[in-house]
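Below is the record:
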Amino acid sequence: MLTKLQASGLALDWGEDWITLDSGGRRCRAMHISTAPYPGFPTDLQAQFMAVNALAEGSATVVENIFENRFMHVAELKRMGAAIDLQGNTAIVQGRERLQGAPVMATDLRASAGLVIAALAADGETTIDRVYHLDRGYAGIDDKLASLGGIIRRIH
């Protein structure tokens, strides 16, 4: 995963329990992804990298080899203006300079995380419905992202 982030143009530095990423103010380059069992690219990160690719420079393919129906988040990213074409188990993603906030719905834990990434980078406001998926795997993510400067709030 770290090699994919480096290939996207990010400068990385890490230690035992921390990591820093620096884009130098530039958009990431699109990353081709093909999920595979360990030690390959983890399917659990596919939705998050799809969101990054939606905003990246260039186009890339995201191939899902592990689970059928793991592209449920694509329709929601497209609501935000992402340019994604599905062909079987392959998504062809053309990076956009900007996404637009929109009401979207989380379909599972991984999709939720990808939608949060897209929403934080989008212009305008995004409302993510069914965040209970997110809460199952990312305790207190709203507070953690807010502490990093994300404008995020929970609507009850």
